[in-house]
Design brief:
Helix content is 27%, strand content 39%. The protein is α+β, with helices and mostly antiparallel strands. It has a single domain, classed as outer membrane lipoprotein receptor (LolB), chain A (Clam), CATH 2.50.20.20. The radius of gyration is 19 Å and the shape is globular. It starts with a helix and ends with a helix.
Length: 286
Amino acid sequence: MGAGAHDEVDAAGAQVLMRRLLLPLVVLLALVAAACGGSEPTAEQVSPDAVVLAASKTNEAGSYKADVSGTMDVAGQSIDMSGTGAFDAAKQRGEMSYSMNLNGVDVDMDMVFAYPLIYMELPPESGQLPAGKKWIKMDLEKLGQEAGLNLDQMMGAGQTDPSQGLDFLRGVKEVHAVGEEEVRGVATTHYTGVVDLATLGTEQPEMKPAIDQLVQQSGLSRVPVEVWIDEDGFVRRMKQTLEGSGSGLPMNMTMTTDLYDFGTDVSVKEPPADEVVDFSELTGQN
């Protein structure tokens, strides 16, 4: 086989690898934004008001910093990840720096969120980008259609930040106070509860499309939730677990999100156009 043929095969292989690694990541981002869950330790049952009010107050802060860590298996693809960043929920802008292991491949990357676009900066040694390009641009709406998901609906109002799960806490029931715990050195009360998705969709009509999509894709009807709230009434941590298959992709996800520095100034700029390549070009989907 000649050098040209080898290059063509290598390019095709790179496209397949890129597609297998990045598409599950996009699904992960949607699920992190849309789902919330966790374990249910036995504890004293209390009114859900503390959790509901804390979720509202945290959302009203508008901006914050976030640290995330978690694992995910979706459609046979595995992801381990950790990241830190800052978000402005009102403007639907944010940025994160991640360290990941995607199907055994270690990847460090920066991401810029500018809904409905996400930009990913891969390290130069990845060898996946054309000369002079540093960033991959992904359109969530297009990729959601490709994956068989309506990411716009799953993300509710279109926010792509980790606190989207706060909206689901509006429908929390069966709340228990587990005890007092510290989160990043801050005293908090640890709560658990359950969100009935059908009831939440009825009580919060603006969220119904997102909830219907989540139910269809995951097969879930009730979602256990776990949240840590500080003395000022802010949500400091959410531990999220989502397991199911429904009519969509088989998935198993655990994600922990820490929120802090509420009201922080967040300045996000999209990458220069001449440094960006569209995801569809890399996967041959033009």
